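Example record used in the benchmark description.
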Amino acid sequence: MDYVNFEESNAFKSGHVACGGCVEALSMRVILNKVGANAVAVVPPSCTAVICGPHPNSAIGIPVYHTSLESSAASASGLRRALNAQGKHDTHVLVMAGDGGTYDIGFQALSSAVERNENILYICFDNEGYMNTGGQKSSSTPLHASTGSTPAGKVSKKKNIIEMLAVQEIPYVATASPGHLDDLANKVEKALKIKGFRFISVNIPCLPGWGLADNQGITSARLAVETGMFPLYEVENGYRYTLNVKTKDKPVDEYLRMQKRFRHLSEQALQDIQTAVDADWERLLRKVSLSE
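Model output (structure tokens):
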């Protein structure tokens, strides 16, 4: 059993409009309880924006700035500097964005904020597609996944945004999962104590977008870790790698076959994915070993 070590502060409120069983809502509750009240959130158009709700209503207990899809990191940079000018250096600036607004449309602003090492905590809720607009593919969508814009399956691998950011040697980059909530809570708490740009990508199985039953979000998230499809690790200052779950003991087909977006896969396609995951896992292990 994975317990979460945090005190409930009512930072995330009932009555929001997330889908029944949505693990993004669960993740938001854990994250916001760790962040606390002395914070502001920047949220672009996304499932997160829908969950937060339109002004003047809000499902979260901190101020929310709804920005454009491409400018989350730029907006957060401006808020950070405005707060600094007011002497509010201890107020956290939190971005909560989807993969479409992070990997794709918002990547230019993200890259610039990373280059400047802005003092921002950026959370990407990675549901591997544009799930709020019909389930189109993003560059986070995995190889061979069927989406609204790739009905026969995506022909390219998922963009490795963690390594793209880590190479810039920012203070902290990590992956997290609603299937391992204490790990998520610990990473948020750790990130809050660090100055500079911090980035956490949270794997979010999308129930309607991935073709999962309402009670399969946590199961899918755990299998993503256990199969190596979404390993849990941290990178500090670009070179110190820590693997948080050190085993990969299940085949990818156990994870893929439960999702409608992968039910078209041939045995060869399954093997292609397994081979790619195994290679990525070995590469990650080598980086971890160099850090020890």
